# Entry
Amino acid sequence: MKMLQQYMSNKKQLVIKGVKVNGFKRGSNSKAVTGVETNQGTIDCEQVVIGAGPWARDFWNMLELPKTANIKGKDGKMHTTDMWTYWMLQEGVIGVEPDFLKMNNGKAPPVIHVDSTAPLYSDKTKKLITDKIWGIYYKPDIEGLGVQGGTSPYIVDKHFDQVNVDPYGIESPEFQTTEAFNDMWCSALAHCQKRFEDKSDLYRKGPSGGLGCMTPDSFPIFDRFLENVYMIADANHGYKMIGVGELVAKEILGQESDLLKPFRFNRYEKGELHPTSNSPFPWS
Ligand SMILES: Cc1cc2nc3c(=O)[nH]c(=O)nc-3n(C[C@H](O)[C@H](O)[C@H](O)COP(=O)(O)OP(=O)(O)OC[C@H]3O[C@@H](n4cnc5c(N)ncnc54)[C@H](O)[C@@H]3O)c2cc1C
# Structure
């Protein structure tokens, strides 16, 4: 409460950290949200903007938005699907020399991303890992610990309301990359570049990875709900969201963005979906 009182008396302070949103206060005559209920009191507001990453589900539930989405198929028929799907993003680091991927001209390499339908064999046991499509990405580790990257994520086989998002990431007792990831990713590295052959023992074991919360078509949603709540559900598209904040701010001030329009929530009901990719990654 003290922090909120400080805020009220000092309007210059625009960002207050460490405040947990628990719910929303609604107006009596309209759907609009009139206040944000937090663990430190209620903040009255005219406008709410939500960008909650993997916690999009929680905010969606707080706003009592539908648990399912109706999607118009190519056949013209309506199909119903769960609103959110959790995917587990698997990442790790192989402890090779920091310059292991340096290019012949001495420069840093680009991020390498490979999707393949070639059968993938274990670099260690030579057994078949998969003959289905697989994908990996890798780049020098930002902390110089070797080469960092990941594989295509897997779908968490639970209704979205049953998924324990917290504790998140490396704190999670439930969602961590496994030995199978180690074998698959290191073998895929060896498949892509010979220099990784016989290096899987250098994989740095330890907690890694994290959950992502995907929309029904795995593309982001940018839209207004309950009159004055703007939601950015990024569906794990990460850096591709750079610049979105400015577009959203303009939309809130009344200037609709042609770039954001295709990402409205009603695209599902209208059947105006984005093209489906063949990649094993939901965001490619
Ligand atoms: C393992 C992993 C690796 C990734 N690697 C990459 C990468 O290499 N490149 C890339 O571009 N993207 C990457 N991404 C995706 C990227 O992290 C996300 O797309 C991006 O962080 C989403 O940004 P956001 O601001 O929408 O949400 P977030 O960054 O998730 O921020 C949401 C915030 O909401 C807060 N919050 C949640 N609940 C509440 C509440 N009740 N009250 C108040 N605050 C709350 C959270 O604490 C958090 O700070 C990766 C994701 C994962 C999981």
